[in-house]
């Protein structure tokens, strides 16, 4: 990066930044605008097969509902990934390298990162999340737990090209991408995202990534159709957000949550299914729904270890190490950027 480009980047960062009250955390707001949300919603609802991107789940209430999902007995991914991190955290730190700059994509409530921060002791921690309020609360909590840690929290949408508050003078970068969020992307989009991460990290960079594995469909279907209805509420909250932000008139009682495992595509699909013939207005536009027609709100692909390694290689990474739980439900991979 040239001196002038670095100077422009620093000015952009300073304009977007705000410091916490005691100056221990800096926040950078690259959050999508209402216009961005409107464009994506109208485009998705206008398709022949209606869809909405899962990143729209994560307003403040949606983030809280997802935190509740991670505590449910049926929802194995979060607790299993945490178990793996706790058991193998020191090995992971050896693989990533200590005292570097650690970027976390989709940091959420930051439950998982605490184990890594304790052993990695990074110079700087850069959590990235699309839910601003959730990100700020989590960053402040981490600052209290790790008082010597420098935190630059970025509210950003990492599903496309995104900004980060990085300093060109920083040493080698490492990234943590937990929760098998890579599974929310169709294979081509997943490869493009991993390519962007590889370019961001550069030669010698490392990525630690959580990847959900193929398993008994009964376990998968239960995880996304919990008995308490929290996942259903999480799914329907997407319509509540659209009503609030875009002046829509979705009747939540006229839609129901549906999730199932598609064996052929090796993915869970989540949908909101219309219970009647109806017309819904969103941002002044009318959308017709037939009874039984759905909005596809999320995919969650499940991988074999070899299948994910092939995807990562195509995106510019080499597999260095893999850790799994005893039941083979979940995996955490350390990837290195190919030279």
In short:
The protein has 339 residues and is of the alpha/beta class.
Q: Figure out the total of helices.
A: 10
**What is the overall silhouette?**
globular
- Let me know the number of strands: 14
Low-confidence stretches: 1-11
- Strand content of the residues, in percent? 25-35%
The end-to-end distance, rounded to whole angstroms, is: 19 Å
The strand order across the widest sheet is 1-2-5-4-3-6-7-14-13
Task: Give me the Rg, rounded.
Answer: 20 Å
> Order of SSEs, N→C?
HEEHHHEHEHEEHEHHEEEEEHEE
The assigned structural class equals alpha/beta
Can you give the mean pLDDT? Answer: 92
Characterize the main sheet: 9 strands, mixed
Fraction of residues in helix: 25-40%
What characteristics describe this protein?
single chain; 339 residues; alpha/beta; 9-stranded mixed beta sheet; 3-stranded antiparallel beta sheet; 10 helices; 38% helix; globular; disordered N terminus
Q: Could you give the topology of this structure?
A:
Elements: H1 3-16, E1 17-19, E2 25-29, H2 34-45, H3 60-69, H4 76-96, E3 101-105, H5 113-120, E4 124-129, H6 132-145, E5 150-155, E6 173-177, H7 187-201, E7 206-212, H8 217-223, H9 230-246, E8 255-262, E9 267-274, E10 278-282, E11 285-289, E12 294-301, H10 305-314, E13 317-324, E14 330-337
Parallel strand pairs: 2-5, 3-4, 3-6, 4-5, 6-7
Antiparallel strand pairs: 1-2, 7-14, 8-9, 9-12, 10-11, 13-14
Helix pairs in contact: 3-9, 4-5
Structure explained in plain terms:
The chain is α/β, with parallel strands linked by helices. The chain contains 10 helices and 14 strands. It has helices at residues 3-16, 34-45, 60-69, 76-96, 113-120, 132-145, 187-201, 217-223, 230-246, 305-314; strands at residues 17-19, 25-29, 101-105, 124-129, 150-155, 173-177, 206-212, 255-262, 267-274, 278-282, 285-289, 294-301, 317-324, 330-337. The strands form 3 sheets. The protein has a 9-stranded mixed β-sheet, with helices on both faces. The protein has a 3-stranded antiparallel β-sheet with strand order 8-9-12. It has a two-stranded antiparallel sheet with strand order 10-11.
């Amino acid at each position: 990066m040239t001196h002038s480009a670095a100077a422009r980047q620093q000015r952009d960062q300073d304009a977007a930044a705000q410091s916490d009250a005691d100056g221990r955390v800096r926040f950078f707001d690259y959050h999508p605008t209402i216009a961005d949300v409107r464009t994506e919603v109208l485009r998705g609802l206008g398709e022949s097969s209606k869809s909405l991107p899962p990143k729209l789940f994560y307003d403040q209430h949606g983030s809280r509902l997802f935190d509740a999902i991670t505590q449910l007995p049926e929802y194995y991914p979060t607790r299993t990934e945490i178990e793996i991190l706790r058991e193998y955290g020191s090995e992971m730190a050896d693989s990533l390298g200590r005292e570097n700059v650690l970027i976390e994509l989709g940091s959420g409530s930051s439950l998982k990162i605490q184990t890594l921060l304790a052993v990695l002791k990074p110079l700087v921690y850069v959590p990235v999340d699309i839910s601003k309020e959730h990100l700020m609360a989590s960053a402040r909590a981490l600052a209290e737990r790790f008082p010597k840690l420098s935190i630059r929290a970025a509210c950003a949408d990492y599903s496309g090209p995104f900004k980060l508050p990085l300093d060109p003078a920083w040493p080698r970068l490492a990234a943590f991408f937990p929760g098998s969020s890579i599974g929310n992307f169709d294979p081509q989009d997943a490869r493009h995202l991993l390519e962007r991460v590889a370019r961001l990290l550069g030669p010698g960079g490392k990525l630690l990534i959580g990847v959900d594995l193929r398993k008994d469909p009964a376990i998968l279907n239960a995880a996304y159709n919990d008995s308490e209805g929290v996942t259903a509420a999480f799914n329907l909250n997407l319509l509540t957000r659209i009503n609030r932000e875009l002046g829509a008139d979705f009747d939540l009682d006229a839609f129901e949550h549906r999730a199932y495992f598609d064996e052929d595509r090796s993915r869970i699909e989540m949908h909101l299914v219309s219970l009647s013939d109806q017309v819904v207005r969103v941002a002044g536009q009318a959308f017709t729904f037939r009874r039984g027609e759905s909005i596809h709100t999320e995919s969650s692909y499940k991988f074999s270890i070899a299948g994910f390694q092939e995807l990562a290689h195509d995106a510019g990474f080499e597999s260095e190490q893999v850790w799994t739980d005893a039941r083979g439900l979940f995996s955490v991979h350390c990837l290195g950027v190919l030279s």
